[in-house]
Design a protein that fits this description.
It is built from 17 helices and seven strands. With 335 residues, the chain is of the alpha/beta class.
Length: 335
């Protein structure tokens, strides 16, 4: 039966561990959180030596997994078997017979990462009917800020929207990486001031609060010529701080949403945030940019960005330094 991360964790925290967990999907973070919790809490420490087994799918067989799962625990109420890299286990569909009648004193966990089983097969139907099935989907870029807010809220902390945007831009959608950096920031927070600021992000993660892709996008949206060119020249001299392909992707996303903004009938903050899939805090950025870039000008900017994307990949402009392309592109957008 399909289950959510929250339901699985709540059930386990009550001490309820099911006979089979099949954890699949493109995002490994939640798979690791669930399997780590089982590994740490399903057995008392004294029972783990004889009753907890980790099997790796690329070096195991379905017979080994099934035979191990059918064993009874030694001087304990249950045993735990975790199959890591289960996506590499050959003939995994042959385990359908075990799923139909699992050993109730075994907690069998499959970590099936970066893919999902074919839902059209009889194997999946048997699995879904008899096991706890969890599918961990990869987050989209625009979902990361909300995830960051929820993660911090659970730990009693908050983050400034601009600092959140900086993190999302810099760290991408790798939840393991994001969680590690957030944990670092939480430790660094001063007592009784549990708000992560841009200055804190700059100090402990190394993202400049003045020179980052988000600030360049904002400066271009405001048509702040001095600030936009200053950041562009900084990136040209420090290409690792602002890779050209990431800047192009960020600006294409921004101006594509700006074009959609122009054609919205209802430009209330709530509707804009919903339609563009952005946080309400950032609606003001689109209002400002719309006053400076008409719909026609926005289309021209999108075309320009696509041209420079091709140039950066060697079309019509082979060999030009990415920093020079960036400075030229920013100039043309602004003028």
């Amino acid at each position: 039966m399909a289950a959510t991360f929250e339901n699985i964790m709540a059930d386990m925290k009550k001490g309820n561990f099911r006979p089979v967990y099949f954890l699949a999907g493109e995002e490994p973070y939640y798979i690791d959180v669930i399997s780590d919790y089982i590994e740490q809490h399903a057995l008392a420490e004294a029972d783990k030596a004889f009753n907890q087994t980790v099997i790796y799918g690329d070096s195991a067989t379905v017979s080994l997994v099934a035979d191990s799962a059918r064993r009874y625990p030694m001087m304990a109420n249950r045993q735990v078997i975790i199959v890591k890299e289960a996506q590499n286990l050959k003939k995994i569909e042959e385990l359908a017979a075990y799923f139909s009648k699992p050993t109730v004193s075994t907690v069998l966990v499959f970590c099936y990462k970066y893919k999902t089983p074919d839902k059209r097969t009889s194997f999946f139907k048997t699995l879904d009917a008899n096991a706890v099935y969890f599918e961990s989907a990869k987050l989209y870029d625009n979902q990361v800020p909300a995830w960051v807010e929820r993660y911090l809220m659970e730990k009693g902390a908050r983050i400034e929207p601009s600092a959140n945007a900086m993190l999302a831009e810099y760290l991408g959608t790798d939840l393991h990486k994001i969680a590690n950096e957030l944990d670092k920031l939480i430790i660094a927070l001063p007592d009784r001031k549990l708000i992560i600021t841009g200055a804190l992000v700059e100090k402990y993660i190394g993202i400049s609060k003045d020179y980052n892709t988000f600030e360049l996008q904002k400066a271009i949206g405001e048509r702040n010529v001095v600030k936009a060119n200053t950041i562009a020249f900084y990136f040209a001299g420090n290409p690792k701080a602002g890779p050209f392909n990431l800047i192009i992707a960020s600006l294409l996303s921004f101006f594509s949403k700006l074009l959609a903004y122009h054609y919205l009938g209802d430009k209330s903050k709530a509707n804009v945030a919903s339609a563009l899939k952005i946080r309400p805090f950032f609606v003001r950025d689109y209002e400002t940019a719309a006053a400076r870039y008409s719909a026609g000008k926005t289309v021209n900017v999108i075309s320009l960005l696509r041209t420079y994307d091709l140039k950066s990949k060697g079309f019509d402009d082979a060999g030009t330094d990415p920093g020079e392309l960036l400075k030229e592109m920013v100039y043309k957008i602004l003028h």
